[in-house]
Fold this protein.
Amino acid sequence: EIVNELFADESKLKALKANAFEYGLHLRWPSTGDVFVDVLNEAIDKYLSEKETGGKPIIDPDIMPAFNLAHIQRLTDDTGIVQHAKYGIPNLKEGYCVDDNARALILTILAYQQNKSKVALDLLPIYLSYIQYMQCDNGNFRNFLSFRREYLDEVGTEDSFGRTIWSLGYLINNAPNNSYREFAKELFLRSVPHFKDLKHLRGLGNTIIGLTHFIKAHPNDEHIKDQLDKLAEPLKAAYRKNKQGHWHWFEEKMTYDNAILPLALMSYYEISKDQEAYDIAFESMEYLTQKTLIGGYLNPVGNDGWLFRDGGDMAIYDQQAIETMAMVLMYFKAYEITHDKTYIKQMYVSYQWFLGENILRIPLFDHETKGCADGLQTYGINRNQGAESTLAYWISHLVVLKAMEFEYEFIQSSDLKAAQNQTF
């Protein structure tokens, strides 16, 4: 009917044709080409503006796996998290250790903080209960427990002690409820008499980090502040003693968990404002960066030979996931203190070691199991996916996401300042 009306009214048909022709002019070349040129110019201007102002986000969440605790759940039973796995299957013969349960406690707190993960909240008391079970009557901690829940040592290492104190301090400062906080505080305070016995640097470093978290929750506790000062001094003294010429490190060799040492002094500086601690922390961090963050990817010190002050090449293999986690944590803390985005970049490069930006160009994170390979070896990855490596990955993952939030806030504030300064 409408078509018949148009044929019956020639003037109306001509008007419709004219309108269609005029509209079609905008859909033909070169009009459409002008639109593409405008879009390209806008994209180029945006890129150049971001490059000039540093506004382009460093962290790309699209390349990061979705958060998933499936493998952590697989490794966890009602006792705690199992140390080792054969491929992606828990190896119950190896039992449990307090190191991994302390890391698992930190992970669950981070996960609950960031996304209110019910899975994490359900796992948290399991790891806390394990730590309580491993505390000796005198306040120290055992480390190893068999699958039959039999103690396998009388007292743990200083490293395991320090990691436990770190996890308890972190819980005290970030507890999802008061009962967990009070429980952790009781365990923490029972362990204080053993602080004075610490001699090994990584035990000291991990303990220092735990104390700084405790003090953030209890800023008026002068006794713990005094303990913190006493623990930081041997770390600074070790650096003064071993720094020689080009060698800017705490020991005569770089071994394992290296970034924990600068991280500990950064954490101490946050509380004490001790300038020497700041100087040592950032100088040693830069030296560690020079040795391990080269060629656009992280290449941590290998455990088959280490790196010695008196000469020789740095060992490349085996590379462990805890090295990478420590680097991620160190750079994030450096950014928190300085707000220098260089450290966000270095943190993100370090994190990508897990995803294949490493010397072998092989990802350690397993998208199928949601676990992480136990390390890089000369022949490839260690395909076992134990607790230490998987916890190291997911802690790093969550810290990177936290850094992304900070970065986004920084970009937003920079955009706001730019808009406020713009003249019209």
In short: The chain is about 60% helix and 5% strand. The beta strands are 85-86, 89-90, 96-97, 144-145, 253-254, 293-294, 297-298, 307-308, 375-377, 380-382. The first strand starts at residue 85 and ends at 86. The domain at 69-400 is CATH 1.50.10.10 (Glycosyltransferase).
